[in-house]
Amino acid sequence: MPGVMTIMYQSTGNYWRMPFVDFDEVPLGIDASRAHPARRYDYWLGGKDNFVVDRESAKMIAGSFPTIRMSAIENRRYLHRVVRFLAGEAGIRQFLDVGAGLPSAGNVHEIAQEIAPESCVVYVDNDPIVLVHARALLRSTPEGRTAYLHADLRDPGTILSMPDLKRTIDLDKPVALMLLAVLHFLDDDEEAHRVFRVLREALPSGSYIALSHASTDDLAPDVDLAEREELNRRAGIPFRLRHSSELAELCAGLELVEPGVSALSLWRPNVPPEQRPRIENVCMHGLVARVP
Fold this sequence. Notes:
Blueprint: E1 4-11, E2 14-21, H1 37-44, H2 52-64, H3 68-87, E3 94-98, H4 108-115, E4 120-125, H5 128-137, E5 145-150, H6 156-161, H7 163-168, E6 176-180, H8 189-201, E7 208-214, H9 225-234, H10 244-250, E8 255-256, E9 262-263, E10 284-290
Parallel strand pairs: 3-4, 3-6, 4-5, 6-7
Antiparallel strand pairs: 1-2, 7-10, 8-10, 9-10
Helix pairs in contact: 1-2, 2-9, 3-4
């Protein structure tokens, strides 16, 4: 039986205790033979809820893109700015975070409920480890609600029909759909468009979609994109880099919020230029768009 210790998570000034599993042994129901995006992302963010296969995959990617950890951190900072905009200026009170990953400091509901305690948040991921941690950590304010769905982005119809989603958010009222660093794992363009379309069509007028995606815009000229994508497959987690113009095309018919599609560090930055990472060290673009 794996060893168990207690770790601490900080959230809006409070610490939450939860059991942390020593993954020298693998919990039942977890496939430790294949890398998973949520666990690999956890590793890049400095977390401990990952396996050897996730760390090996992460290191393989870092061999080709040494600043990948910076990219993960910048994506997390982007999430924080986006949620503050949505809960604050845009007045959104419902959030659907698909591909949420492992809980860490500054989750969507913490930021949203700090601004508006009545905010309701549904998290979705397909990693059983996320399920375990979500049950322990994703605690709502008394005024709001949170829920976690164990489901896959590739099956958006199932996500939208799950009872816990319907109990937590009302799809007849504006919702913020969060698709941060997740669509690039759909390496088939047709599938990515299908999934996006199904989720988008479920949102009423006044909703928002927030998106971040690994991009080709800022890659060095000598980077062979085909070789990079083959490396992704060999690392066990295929993903597709797309140009910012493809993201804009995906959101055709939506109202882009200023500054439109941009490098993550340039989307409504809250630090001076000298404190922002170089965009070529992040290679991700993002956008927020309103459903008319």
